[in-house]
Specification:
single chain, globular, nine-stranded antiparallel β-sheet, alpha+beta, 3-methyladenine DNA Glycosylase, Chain A, DNA-binding
Amino acid sequence: MMVVSSTLLTPAFFNRDPRKVARGLLGKLLVRKTRQGTLAGRIVETEAYLGTGDEAAHSFAGKTARNSVLFGPPGFAYVYFIYGTHYCLNVSCLPDGVAGGVLFRALEPVTGIEKMAEARGIEVRGTEDLNNRSLRQLTSGPGRLCEAFGITRERDNDKIFTSARSDLQLARDGFRVGQVVAGPRIRIKKSVEQPYRYVIRGNPFVSGPKLLQDGNRGA
DNA sequence: GAGGAGATCGTCT
DNA sequence: GACGATCTCCTCT
């Protein structure tokens, strides 16, 4: 078992500017409890979406039935369906009534790798090799990590992350993150210039074009 | 290895 | 009726 001990994050952790939450979430654990066992992944890539003044955010045009979780209290799951095939997972930030959230873009698998591989329909060999191609395909991308963790809007939207009774949790285990790199958000068309995407530098599980994976932007 | 386009449906206009 | 905070497969080099 690789996770020795961990502590749940508190609502106060999420009751802040999404940019701070996005950065703070790097190195933390996303935990899914199932009857078959526990799944856990270390967060290596996030994106911040501000509630107002951020054209790219789902909450920009105001509250709707779809995005209402973003306007609710901090520390709750906002799950949406996109492109007819994929789910994406966010956590709400800022106090009740103020919109804001952080998108989980990529995880490094920690516990339950076999279960994740099964959910993704991928055969993984050599789980010790972090550069293993099939291992990276498990959770390196918003849609991929949702599939690996069995996250859907029907099951998980509006679920609390900060309760010990929840089957979806966010926790810290003392892991120390190395260098954090902030860059432009990817695969969106609005406000792309804002550097609200955060990654752990050099982590092989970061998603997106290869040039961006180590945060190397030509400097 | 890189680049492009299709898949597929909920949500909002 | 149009589009999207994506993924995968296919083609070309």
